[in-house]
Design goal:
alpha+beta; Alpha-Beta Plaits; 5-stranded mixed β-sheet; 5 strands; 54% helix
Length: 316
């Protein structure tokens, strides 16, 4: 009887232990593939030393992080890249290609809006720029003018200096972007396409069969299209570096003073007048001095001739 009771007790204890371990395993059903197997490999055996250290986990590649699921089963996004990793900047500090865009807002009296816009056009043309479009609206206090300009980048600073002196500056903003990398990339693509076409033409001249020549002609046609696309891309990027877009807005301000000129403006005008006078004097000197020299030579020759005749008459 005692033996039967002992057997029943052992069976009951085994059943309870198995159920608890089953529920524990079912409750901890979340596992990461690969990590669990690695942990089983480094786990100590039943008879081994419990102080044995586990081997380090293998590094996880960056690509393996994509699509990893969290505890809720939601796919995790890949790690974000830093700005330095995503942007591309060509090295070097010389011959940088810069794209510049400027927005300028001026204010003046309502009756001077058209005059200011005309001066904007005059300054733009004097700096080899182009007025893409202009719109002037004259309606009393609500008069305004909007002009879109394209100015060579080398003259943009001079244009800003001249235009900001026409009226009160309400706002001035400039956006610059380094486009050296796309410029160099487009330039290299165009050169590579041209070099490939030259090599194909050389190969066509040395073709030994009509089939080979026909295949080379097809490749040359593809190369011609590639050159056209590369040239279009390069010209577009080069245009951004060579020319700058400038937007000028002139608004009416009834409270603006009639003459907002400063002492510096008057000094600039005085210098301009002196320069104009110096130019007139220089041109006059360039005309008068040669004429004076000619008149002096003619008078000297005439005087010598008359003196010679008078001396010969006295001798006779």
């Amino acid at each position: 009887a005692l033996a039967s009771l002992a057997v029943v007790a052992v069976v009951a204890i085994s059943t309870i232990g198995g159920g608890s371990s089953g529920s524990s395993s079912s409750g901890d059903s979340l596992s990461v593939p690969g990590i669990e197997a690695h942990m089983q490999e480094v786990a100590p055996s039943a008879g081994g030393d419990s102080r044995q250290s586990a081997a380090p986990l293998p590094p996880v590649a960056a690509d393996d992080l994509t699509g990893t699921a969290d505890s809720a089963g939601t796919a995790l996004p890949p790690p974000p890249q830093s700005v330095g990793q995503s942007s591309k900047v060509s090295p070097g500090t010389e011959k940088r290609q810069i794209d510049r865009d400027v927005q300028l807002e001026l204010s003046t009296r309502p009756d001077q809006v058209r005059d200011v816009s005309d001066q904007v056009i005059s300054i733009t043309r004097s700096l080899d720029g182009v007025v893409v479009n202009s719109q002037v609206s004259e309606s009393g206090r609500d008069s305004s003018a909007t002009l879109q300009l394209t100015i060579p980048s080398r003259n943009l600073d001079a244009a800003i200096d001249d235009l900001t002196g026409l009226a009160n500056v309400e706002s001035l903003s400039e956006v610059t972007q380094d486009i050296t990398h796309p410029y160099v990339t487009a330039q290299d693509r165009l050169r590579d396409a041209a070099a490939e076409r030259r090599s194909l033409l050389d190969a066509l001249a040395k073709a030994s069969s009509s089939a080979e020549a026909q295949a080379l002609r097809l490749q040359i046609a593809d190369s011609r299209r590639e050159i056209s696309q590369a040239r279009s891309l390069f010209e577009n990027v080069a245009r951004q570096a060579r020319l700058s877009d400038m937007s000028v807005t002139v608004t009416a301000d009834p409270s603006a003073p009639e003459d907002a000129r400063t002492l510096g403006d008057w000094l600039d005008d005085a210098i301009d007048v002196l320069r104009a006078i110096a130019g007139v004097l220089l041109i006059s000197a360039a005309i008068v001095v040669p004429l004076g020299i000619l008149f002096s030579l003619a008078w000297f020759v005439t005087n010598r001739v008359r003196r010679g005749r008078r001396e010969r008459a006295l001798d006779s």
